[in-house]
Amino acid sequence: ALEIQGKKLEEAVFVCMGAGAAAIACMSMLVKCGAQRENVYMLDRKGVIHTRREDLNEYKALFANNTDKRTLQDVIKGADVFLGLSGPDVLGAEEVAMMAEKPVIFACSNPDPEIKPELAHEIRKDLIMGTGRSDYPNQVNNVLCFPFIFRGALDVRASRINDEMKIAAVYAIAELAKEPVPESVLAAYPNVSELSFGPQYVLPKPMDSRLLPKVAKAVAQAAIDSGVAQIDTLPQYPEV
Predict the structure, then answer these.
(1) Which of the listed CATH numbers 3.40.50.720, 3.30.300.30, 3.10.20.740, 3.30.460.80 matches domain 14-131?
(2) Could you tell me if 168 and 214 are in contact, meaning their C-beta atoms sit under 8 angstroms apart?
(3) Mind listing the pLDDT tens digit for each residue in 140-189?
(4) Where in the chain is the domain with CATH 3.40.50.720?
(5) Greatest distance between any 2 Cα atoms in the chain
(6) Which has the least CB within 10 A, 58, 96, 104, 213?
């Protein structure tokens, strides 16, 4: 999404609403992929997680920002990305309007997102929007990775699933979104006549059968390369 918006991951400013297991894991992965930790503002029920708070557990403390900002409005001004891993309707129209040009919003709370796509698009015409739901474009859902991470890991008898394998899955999924979408995928979505890499299609669809060979193969290769595989040759994955 940042690539489409003409922005770089290592320069983008992130606001993460939520500080539970999902939020910590997602932001940790973004940092491992190149996001700068000092550009990440995480919020819990008490507001911004900052270095002067004394109520943080060891996981939240990893994202304590040395800042005087305390509220969502403080940190959302000029932000490039909002990631919602919290609850419904916590992001308002006023906050969306305060974001940087060409923002990205992934509102992943299910079934009700942090902001409804209709409202977000009404406020910002330059927005890329994703949710956890299948009835909107850009469904952000772990079904895109978990089955195929496990398949790749099991195929080479990996002793554990490490960062290298997870990052390999990230890039395999991202690259697949840039490839032409086959008719078989379009047929699974009768209300969609065309899909191509852009604001309405930043991630592959869960029904895309190419996910299995592409993601599992990338994960298996990463396991071999990082030394956690007990089988050092790749299996034959089907070509789709």
Answers:
(1) 3.40.50.720
(2) no
(3) 999 999 999 999 999 999 999 999 999 999 999 999 999 999 999 999 88
(4) 14-131
(5) 55
(6) 58
